[in-house]
Structures are given as C-alpha cells and as structure tokens.
Sequence to fold (338 residues):
Amino acid sequence: MKKHVVLLAAAVLALSALAAFAATDALVGACIYKFDDTFMTGVRNAMKTQMDKEGGELEIVDSQNRQPTQNDQVDAYISKGANALIVNPVDRTAAQPLMEKAKAEGLPIVFVNREPYEEVMKAYDKIWYVGAKAEESGTQSGQIIVDYFKKNPKADKNGDGKIQYIMIRGEQGHQDATLRTEYSLKAIKDGGFEVVELGNDTANWDKVQATDKMKGFISAVGVDNIEAVLANNDDMALGAIEALKAEGYNMGDPAKYVPVVGVDATAPALEAMSKGELLGTVLNDADNQGFAAVKVAVVAADDKPVTEESIGYKITDGKYIWIPYRPVTVENYKEFMK
Ligand code: BGC
Fold:
C-alpha cells in the first residue's frame, strides 16, 4: 500500500514537472506591414525561430503595405481563435482601432517596429511594444561620421570646416525616420562640426528609390561637393552607393570616396562594408526584436504574467521592450556577419 502511495506521488511529481516545461499550444497571429522589407524579413525569420522553440503555432501574413488589408487580417485572426496578436502596423497612427479590436476580445496584442502613440499604449492592459529607441541609432550613426572626419581631415573636401551632406530619409511619419534624421545631425553638431545640407528627401526605406534620389542630388550639386551621405536605413544607403558607383565613386580609389552611413546592419550592408563601399551602420537587432515579440505573445497567450523573468528581456513601464542598437564599423562588422 505504502509503495503505491510513493509511486503515485512520484508520478504526480513527474507530471507536474512536465506541465511546467510543457510547450505552449498557443496560436499567435502576426501581420507584417510588407514582406518585401529587408529588415522586417529578419524580424519575421527570428519570430519563426522563436516559435519553433516555444512549440506553439505562428501564422504570419503580408499586409502588403495597406492598412485596410491589415485590419481585415486582424479580424480574420480573431475569428479563427488566435490567442495573441503580433502587429507591425502599416501606419503607426492606425494602431488604435487594432488595439480596440484586441481589447474587445481580451486578446494580448504586441506591436513591433512601428510604435503606437502613447495614448493607445495606455488604453489597454494587454498591449506591448517591442522596438528600439530611434534616437539611439541616429546618435550612433552621426558619431560614426564624426569619428571619420576627426581621423580624416581631408574628408572636408572644400576645407570650409563644415560637412556638406545628403540626408535620405525613411517613410514619412515613421518614428525611426524622424528621429534618426534629427539625432544623426545633432550628434555631428555635438561632435563639433557645422553642417550644410545639400539635399534631403525620403526614399521610403527603399533601395531603388534611394538610387534615383541620389542620382538627382549628384546631378544637382556635383558628386565632388558631397562630403557625407546619411541614410535612415541600410537599403537606402546601398541605393545611394549604387548612384555613387555609377560615377566611379566608392570603388576603391581613395580620391573618389564619399562616406555613407546607414542603419540596420543587414547582410548586404555588412558585405558592402567588407568591400569598403559603406563606411558604417548601426545594428538594429532584428533577431532580438523577433524573439522578444514572440516571447511576450506566448506568455500573454498562456495567461501568465509578462515579467522580465518570464520573457527574458527588460521591460520599461510595464509595456515597452527596448532592444539596444550598436554601432557597426570596419573594426567590428565581422562580429555581426552570420
Ligand atoms: C528599419 C528599416 C525598415 C523599417 C520598417 C526600420 O526600423 O531600419 O530598414 O524598413 O523599420 O518599418
């Protein structure tokens, strides 16, 4: 009899240990603003990797850069019984109705990469944001230019003590476009340089659009007068480099070189750094943003408290998971190659 009790107790213990480690069976529905975005493809892949570890089901759909499509996709996830949502909004100002849809169902919702306004974040207790502080990336990319000009006084080609630059911005209204533009220039000025803007336009995060814009700037101001190019992301930095290469620049001749900086540290950007075409970039940590978003979604879907212990990431104000940026230069870029 006693033996049976002991066996039973052992079985109960074993079962509860299993339950503690049990994989989730949550269904998480994710919407990405568009699949054809280099950085978000990295986040998307990281989300899949994390869900493979968690054991739940992750569905990811392409919102094709259309907010109404995304709204319908969220409705579809709700009707099929998703336990949590991950949304990379097409338009960050359209996060409110999505939050309200989730709230009406008591469903956890995790926004990524495009930050909803504060009032939206405050209006629901099961809302989180996973992203990175855009100011930080702006400051770090500006600092790369400062360091370069301090080390290479001849980079001031006309010797006027000022940096003649071109700014290529991301999508209008995106917090990363606004803040990277502002903080990269601020860092250059804080670093002791005056700046002169030769051109400033949006290329919507897109490489081809950036090549076109850069070609326009080159014909307007002359390639020799451009002392630096600041792009809000790597795809646009690489687009600008294409235009420079068409003029024989950034192809190895030190007399024909314009320092270009981007943000993201995508694989093609690291490759361009290895060839000396791109001066520097800033790691926008797609892996950790994707991992953290899935962690939060799964923990919340399983109705467990979202804490630093349960997700393994620092949480600010109970709702924000900020993944740090890191400067990437010729000295350390190899660390980031996969
Ligand atoms: C990235 C861009 C990307 C954008 C999409 C930014 O954080 O730096 O490369 O296109 O997010 O929203």
Q: What stands out?
A: Residues 135-283 form a domain with the Rossmann fold fold (CATH 3.40.50.2300). The CA atoms of residues 158 and 228 lie 13 Å apart.
